[in-house]
Amino acid sequence: MGIREDILNAKTALGIEFGSTRIKAVLVDSTNAPIASGSHEWENRLDNGIWTYTLEDIWGGLQDAYADMAADVKKQYDVELENIGAIGFSAMMHGYMAFGKEDELLVPFRTWRNTITAEASEKLFKEFNYNIPQRWSIAHLYQAILNEEEHVKDITYFTTLAGYIHWQLTGEKNLGIGDASGMFPIDCSKKDYDETMVQKFDALVADKHFPWKLRDILPKVLVAGEKAGALTEEGAKKLDVSGKLKSGILVCPAEGDAGTGMAATNSVKQRTGNVSAGTSIFLMAVLEKDLSKAYPELDMVTTPDGSLVAMVHCNTCTSDLNAWVGLFREFMETMGMEVDMNNLYGTLYNKALEGDKDCGGLVSYNYFSGEPISGLEEGRPLFVRTPNAHFNLANFMRSHLYSSVATLKMGMDILTQQENVELDRLMGHGGLFKTKGVGQSIMAAAMNTPVTVMETAGEGGAWGIALLASYMKNKAEGQTLDEYLSKEVFAGQEGSTMAPDAADVKGFEDFMASYVPVLAAEKAAVETLKVNS
């Protein structure tokens, strides 16, 4: 009855996140617990060499995910969803959506997945002395300028996918600071775009005589807790095609998936971090101060409330590991055995814990694709061992688990060894942590930091943006985002924490002592082993 009352009295918050393969909607009650959800599966498409989603994909997917969530509310609580306390939208970060004076999309949406801005990224790095990854919006804009694309002179606004949805549903051209930090570098002291770099960019393109300056076409930056607009009448109809949803609902600043991941893991406080480990892997470390210099291996973004974050991003994590588990499944099926995949994963992961701390002379590379951190534009999964290696199943599995996080460690070592960054805790979420205690202990050893896994972390970014919407509406006077999350969301949820084991830490370091030099073999494999088209 309490949940039903929350729904009827609009003491709820809704978060909708656009992931790479799924759009998910999560509704929370007055205690911030998820009470209903909906989703829509979608896939990007390659259109004239550009990875994109069409506007039809975007709106059809949003409406389907919302309708699925509303149907879940009706099924569970026998209530037609007409009002919501607050709403937030988030999406995969960065990318490029440029609009003209009639609010028309000038070129197809260019997603984060595109690697077509290398020239712009390199030139902006030198101009700003600041790492500008290829997927950042400013890299896409500058590359379009370098390519002399016709549409650039007609731009009146450009934004991210989350910013686009927010604008269309509220009429407001603003963006949460975390997502904005993937458009253009942020000055964390002012909680706004870095003005020196803005002026440098305007000077860089001044000879083009565009009718706009950079600030004219960027969204306004907002921080978590600020009111970012309200659902318009048109917006309500666009979100809920049934027409039941009321307009006027408050909407929080739109965010990127990195920011919502930080909220969903209670990792917005300085000296905390979170690591998402699945098909790809990335670690977000909330910093106490600026780094001494720019590193091409590190992306600098922010928390939803504007603290500086160093992001270590690797393209591959568990793909090779999953392929080997699939091989073991095929063997078992060939032998006439029935295979329970959860049991198979659990058995093989736990077997790894029996292995030698340094994997006994076995080394593997999980590179399904290139990894900028180790200087590879392509990848070839590779397994190598010495003739006298301790070759058994435990060491085999352990080496592949180590490999899943080895490149991440290379990036993290820049922070810990060159910048003396310290983390009090690291929150782990994603498929690597599904088998209790295994991925967690490996990660703790690799990062030499306690790793905590919470049950709620599996709710993901849609829950994270719902929490940011809830914070905007329900925070006490002067209450910080960290205080709100700790008191109103995660209080009493300690989760499971594993401290790094000294022997495991040394074993991982010994593994890396072999791993890094043998990258030469990985590079040779890329150069000589061609991929069949």
UniProtKB/TrEMBL annotation:
Sorted alphabetically, the keyword list is: Kinase, Transferase
- The domain of life is Bacteria
Domain Carbohydrate kinase FGGY C-terminal: residue ranges: 274-471
- Family annotation (Pfam families): FGGY_C, FGGY_N
According to the entry, every stretch annotated as the Carbohydrate kinase FGGY N-terminal domain falls at: 13-239
**Molecular functions per Gene Ontology:** kinase activity
Iron recorded as keyword:
no
Q: Which PANTHER family match?
A: SUGAR KINASE, XYLULOSE KINASE
What family classification does the UniProt entry report for this protein?
Belongs to the FGGY kinase family.
Protein name (Swiss-Prot/TrEMBL) = FGGY-family carbohydrate kinase
Instruction: Give the species this sequence originates from.
Output: Muricoprocola aceti
